[in-house]
Design brief:
The chain is mainly alpha-helical. Helix content is 34%, strand content 0%.
Length: 88
């Protein structure tokens, strides 16, 4: 292999590498990005607004053992608060 053949091969390899790099830099940019999906949680039930375990005790069957209420099961009554609508 002569020096001239070696230079031609290096030049050809450099050209192929440059073409590959330019195509890689241009490709793959998609502007069809999907919009983010926002999921809103369902509103809280009426029973769960009254305390931590009030809803559990409210939904218990009639024949179950009566629960022993603990601190935090039922919210304190605030006479100045806005009334909660019973039928929404």
């Amino acid at each position: 292999m002569t020096r001239n053949d070696f230079a031609k091969r290096v030049a050809a390899l450099a050209g192929v590498a440059a073409a590959g790099l330019s195509l890689a830099a241009c490709g793959g940019s998609s502007h069809n990005t999907p919009a983010p999906v926002t999921v809103t949680p369902p509103p809280a039930s009426l029973e769960s607004k009254f305390g931590a375990n009030f809803a559990t005790d409210y939904d218990a069957s009639n024949n179950s053992t009566p629960p022993h209420p603990s601190s935090g099961d039922i919210n304190a009554v605030d006479p100045t608060a806005q009334p909660i609508p019973l039928h929404s």
